[in-house]
Structures are given as structure tokens and as C-alpha cells.
Amino acid sequence: MNPSPTKTRRAAAALMFLYGVIVLSPLILLAILRPLTDHSFVYTIGKNLALLGFAMFAMQFVVSARFKWIERPFGLNLLFSFHKTMAIVASLLVLSHPLFLLLGGGELSLVLGPDVIWHIWLGRIAMVGLLFHVLLASFRLIIRLNYETWRFIHNVVALVFLPLAFLHSWKAGGDLELPAMRVLWVTLFATATAAYFWHRVARPMTLRRAPYTVTDVRKEADGVWTVALAPTAGVVRFDFLPGQFHFLTFRRAAHLPVEEHHWTISSSPTEAGVLRSTIKESGDFTATIGETKPGDTAVVYGPFGRFSYVLHSEEKDLVFIAGGIGITPLMGMLRHMRDTRAERTVTLFYGNTSEQDIAFHNELAEMERAGVASLKVVHILSKAADSWRGERGRLDKDIVAKFCGPLCADRAFYICAPPDVMDHTIPILRRGGVPPGRIHFERFSL
Ligand SMILES: Cc1cc2nc3c(=O)[nH]c(=O)nc-3n(C[C@H](O)[C@H](O)[C@H](O)COP(=O)(O)OP(=O)(O)OC[C@H]3O[C@@H](n4cnc5c(N)ncnc54)[C@H](O)[C@@H]3O)c2cc1C
Fold this sequence. Notes:
Helix content is about 50%, strand content about 15%. By secondary structure, it is an alpha/beta fold. Helix 1 runs antiparallel to helix 2, helix 2 (about 40-65) packs across helix 7 and helix 6 packs antiparallel against helix 7 (about 145-170). The protein is elongated and about 80 Å long. The model has no long low-confidence stretch (mean pLDDT about 95). The structure holds flavin-adenine dinucleotide.
């Protein structure tokens, strides 16, 4: 469950190497089997861009399929950033394909003319779909496209693009006349299809057969709820690291939406047979979370993530920084420290708008009193009542220095907060001399 850092690094390096070999395999194979070409240099580049782009797109299905053996060494956040970056690179490669063919002496009628054979039309449709998708992805937030609509379009385009690109290249690509290239092409296409089928059909069906049951729904603070889940009788709850997250799909009253969302597991793995998530009402789905009732069920898939102090056994002196609901992974870690009597010291900076927004207020105070991890909790409120005697405003270097002292740079930092707080805090720490390897953070958006 918790492999050594060396093993993790080796696994990450092996996966990156494998990825590189797979996406470059069409070009490697061509260099071996057909080193000489009749085409101009620029035309050949145009052809190769499409081959490379296709292999990268096929691998996108594998990267995004949430395979645990791929996720484990990197964490899902990093893997999804990689997925997004590779989507941009692959799109640029494929969109440049016709341009380079033209510049390299290809016929204009092939790219723009109306009288072309069907597989050229398939290539054009794939290209238009891809362009539409790239534009939509770039302007999604500006045009305020909601997440579910975006995800639906993303899935449809991905599903349609790959077969179209496959058929187009199969018929149009001269290089695909080589039997070894044909085998490679079918393998890439079949791998992508299998990953998609597993991710979207087979795995959800398997998980649905053993749903968890909601055993408790508790109000934690204003607009914040903790939902407790227990596995089906006879099923063992999966093991996880404190601070990790899971995907939940609740099945509740008929009028309530059924959507898959990711939430941190705010309970500790030491608490047998239960998973808790603490969820803030922050959008259309989470606005309904308080309507979840004991007896409702949920499909659970996890655990994911690498935001956990247990992965860094060398770090003893920790600073936790939480903004609002970002407290959840840190709470999971503190509970684990309490239950395992972990030898750590923790200073927690916990920012909220007002006192009513503070989740786990009493439990944190209790841990502080009990000396769990020599915990020191520093609450910071941005809109504090006059009676508030704690810190006010937002976290800045003066507050950190006041509570952490001059040895602050020697500590390890765990941050989970809204994006603006993270973007403000991480540079403060870097300027203060904290090395990047000792700043761990979790973003609540994939
Ligand atoms: C690793 C991780 C851990 C998280 N842990 C917690 C937690 O412990 N407690 C908590 O309250 N929140 C947590 N979140 C945030 C939570 O997932 C979002 O607040 C929630 O999905 C918003 O849903 P909504 O429809 O109510 O909000 P909306 O306003 O509809 O969506 C807000 C944003 O959330 C994202 N989002 C919405 N729906 C989905 C979806 N189905 N899948 C993926 N992203 C989506 C989109 O970026 C969207 O723009 C976590 C997020 C991540 C990535």
C-alpha cells in the first residue's frame, strides 16, 4: 500500500519511458522499415506529425482511465495535468498535419476540394471536430459552460475522433501499407478502445454490484456536511492513506441528481469499516448534499492521490495550511496521527470567512488539548466578528513567522486551499527558503 520513495520513483520512470516508446513507436518502426521516402522533407514531417498525434491520442484513453497502477506513482492531479498538456500537444500536431502536407507539395484539392474520396472526408470531419473541441476547451470558463455539458462533449468528441482518425489513416496513409505498421495501428486502437470500455462500462458495472451504504449524514458547519459510508455486508473497505480521495456516485431520492464527484476521505484509515467525506455546498450538485439520507447508497472508487504525510516519513515538523473545505485531507491526516500516536509536530493555519464556517472546530480544539502531534491550531478569519480574539485577514508571512519562528524553512508544508490562497502562499514559502520538495499541495480541481 505504501511503497518506498525509491520504488515509486522507479515505477514513475518506467511508466514515462514506456509512454515515450509507445507514442514514438510509429516513427521508430518507420525509421527501421522504410528509412527512405519519395516525398519532400516538409511533406514527410506532415505525415509524421499525424502518426505521432494518433499514437498520443490513443494513449490519452489509457492515461485518463484511472488505472491505479498508472496513477499511484504520480497522483491523479499530476496525471490529469499531463493528460491536458498532451491533449494540447497532440491537437497541435494533428492540426498541423494538412498544413505541412500542403507546404510540402501536397494538392490543395485534397485538403479543401469537394470531390475527394470518403476517407479524406473522414479525416476532415475528425479535424473539424478536433478544432471545435480545442476552441471549446480554451473558452470553456469564459463562456461558462457547465462541467457536465463540457464532459459530455469531451467524451463524444474523443469517442468519434479516434475511429475517424483510424479509418482515415488506414486508407490514406501510405506508410500503413506496411504489415508491421498495420499491426501497430490496430494495437493502438484496440488498447484505447479497451481502456475506454474498462473505464466507462466494465469497472462502473463491477463497482455498482457492491455499493456502499450511507450510515450517517451530519452537519459539520454552515453549508458543510459529513457523509459516512459503510461497505456492503461481507465486503472489506478498501485501504487508503490519510489524505487520499475517492470518487462517489450517490443513489438517492429520485429527484436528486446522479453524478460522479471526487471528495477527500476525511476519516482516518484506522477507523475500521467506514469512509467519511466532508462536503461543502459549493455548486449545483453539492447544494443537494444535505438531502442525502442514511440508507441511500453510493458507488465508490478509490483511493487516489499522493497528498499524505505518510509518504514522507523523513518529515517530522509539519505546517498544515487549510483554506475553507481544504481542511478535509489535513483532518484525515491529523486523525491518523492521533490514532497511531505518530511522532510529528504540526502547526495548522486554518483560514475561513467567519467562525460559523469553521469545520471540525471542537475536534481540533480537543486534539490540541490532548497534545496530538503537539498540535497548534491558528484560526484566521477574513470577516471576523468584533468579539473574535484570533488572527484576522489572510495568511501572510508575518503570521507564519509569528507562529513558526525562524526555523520555518526547515519544516514541511501541506497546503490545501482555494486557488488564490495557494497561488499567494506557495511563493511566500519559496521566497522564505522552503525547498519545493517540502511543499506538498492538493488542488480541489482536476
Ligand atoms: C482531489 C479533490 C478532492 C476534493 N475534496 C473535496 C472535499 O473533501 N470536500 C469538498 O467539499 N470538495 C472537495 N473537492 C471539490 C469537489 O469535487 C467539487 O466541489 C465538486 O465536484 C463541485 O461540484 P458541484 O457540481 O456542486 O459544483 P459546480 O459549481 O457545478 O462545479 C464547480 C467545479 O467543480 C468541478 N466539478 C464539478 N463537477 C465535477 C465532476 N463531476 N467531476 C469533476 N469535477 C467536477 C468543475 O471544475 C467545476 O467547474 C475535491 C476536489 C478534488 C479534485
